[in-house]
Amino acid sequence: MPRDFRADVQALRGPAVLLVVLYHTQLAPFGYLGVDIFFVISGFLITGHIATRLEQSRFSFYEFYYRRAKRLLPAAYVVIALTTIAAPFFLSDVGLRDFRSQILGALTFTGNIVLWTQAGSPPGARPCPPYSHWTFWFAEPDRGCRFGLLGNRDPPAVAQQG
């Protein structure tokens, strides 16, 4: 096992995956709880990584986002390619038009704006299958706040008694 393997984190991932799968198979109504668990895990691990790198004076925004892109984009591009191939077999003409806009949004990192314009407002206004991605829009600003909070970690100055 790698030295940074976390059994406690792995124990949370299992139920999170199960909740999402049960939701998508329509066996349980609480799939968003699984997504929320993944957000908590992600935030915990990312914050720990950033804090450690800051303490070592080795943190780099470029390296941080480069590693994220290297880890996440290949899977995203595979999903986009496979759904683009499958879409004509499953979607109507109207669905394909919306799908084309959603793919363009995904490729330009404006997918949530596309979904918002298609539905007219955030989730709940009209059923839209890709809304499970809506909450990802909030993840990056959260990380930006975390950078700011972790970047100012010096303890307050204490007056010396003389």
UniProtKB/TrEMBL annotation:
Organism: Sinorhizobium numidicum
Protein name as annotated: Acyltransferase
Coiled-coil region: none
Keywords assigned by UniProt, alphabetized: Acyltransferase, Membrane, Plasmid, Transferase, Transmembrane, Transmembrane helix
GO molecular function: acyltransferase activity
InterPro entries linked: Acyl_transf_3_dom (IPR002656), Acyltransferase_3 (IPR050879)
Membrane-spanning segments: 30-51, 72-91
Domain Acyltransferase: 8-116
